[in-house]
Amino acid sequence: MSQSKREQVVSHLRYIRQELREMHQGVMEDGLLPEAGEVRGVMAQMEALLELLEGKGARKKDSDG
Predict the structure, then answer these.
(1) Structural domain tally of the chain?
(2) pTM for this model (two decimals)
């Protein structure tokens, strides 16, 4: 994996980890579930990371199944 791609993956993972920590904290401290938009945002980041790792063509094949 190229250094640039590796840095992008690390950046995506840090963002996702932070978002999930905030959601978890809200659930544990306040008993509040995250809003649907927040969950969709994290899911979009995970999709972007997957596309970065696999390439756009490989991801489209998976979703067609």
Answers:
(1) 1
(2) 0.69
